[in-house]
Structures are given as C-alpha cells and as structure tokens.
Amino acid sequence: MGPRIAPAPEPVRRGGALRAVAGFTLIELIVVLALISILLFFSMPRFQGEFLQDSTQKAVRWVMHTVKNLRQDAVKHRKTYILHIDPGQGAMWVSDESMTEEDIENASKGRYEFPDHMTIADVAFPDGRKSGQEQADVRFYPKGYSDRAVIHIRANEDEQISLLIEPFLANIKVYDTYVDFEK
Description:
Blueprint: E1 11-14, E2 17-20, H1 26-52, H2 54-77, E3 81-86, E4 91-96, H3 101-109, E5 112-113, E6 118-124, E7 136-140, E8 149-155, E9 159-165, E10 173-175
Antiparallel strand pairs: 1-2, 3-4, 3-7, 4-5, 6-8, 8-9, 9-10
C-alpha cells in the first residue's frame, strides 16, 4: 500500500454500523490534476482564437446569414431584394424593389455597421467595376439567383477577407485573403 497524506481511516460508528472515513491518496490527487492540466492545454488555444476574433467572425456570419435570407425571401415573396453596401460608412442595409425613397432612407437608418476594427475595402463585380468608397448594390432576384460580387473586408489593418457571392449558390464563399475576379 502506498503512502497516505493522512493516517489510515479509523472506523466510525453511526447508527449501529461501522463505516470507514475515506480520503484521497497523494497519487490520486496528482493523477486528477495531471488530467485537468492536459485538458486545459489542448482547449486553451481554441478559446483564445474564439475570443480574439469573435467580432470579426460575427460580422462575417451576419453577411452570410443576410445573403442567404435575401436569396430565400426573393423567391418566397417574388420580388427583387437589394443589399446596399456602403464602404465609406462601413455599413450594409437591405431594401426591395417595392420600397419608396422614404422607405429606403428609413431602411438605411437601421443598417448594420461593422465593428471599428473592420472596414469594407470595396465591392468588385465580374465586369471589372469596383465600388471603391462609393455605395454598391447587390440584387437578389425572384427566380433564385443574384448578382455576382466580391465584398473585400479589412480587419485589424492586416487581415484581408473576401466574401464571394455566386449567382446560383445559396451560401457565400469566405476567403482569408484578397480574391478578385479573373480577367
């Protein structure tokens, strides 16, 4: 039997029965601490990555979710939806073809604004047009397709993200680098 931290338990009489007072050996405590340390060693890098880039990933997920919903809503409601992208303001909002100018202005007030560490560099289209800091519109049509476009985003001054919207694909493609249309 191995060494114990405390002396051997002495039987205690409770309710007429003899019971031993139990404790943990030093070896058992060391093994449990080692297992916990190993689990933390492998899980901490994942948590650090989640915390550091959470707002960047949240913004990208917002764009992905919005594009998917616009495509579905265009088919469901049989009207053209427009995703307005304003690189100068770092914002996006949605309108549809049936809205008046006043409705579109109200929709722009409820826009999604990117976090401070992110900027929209530009929006590129297959014909070579780039929005620069001007507003760009990506349309989603009732027959289930959309305009083809790439939204270029900068995060933390050194990270480039490209979001490719394909006409017939439900989900957008996300690239961790600057991607443009081939000429």
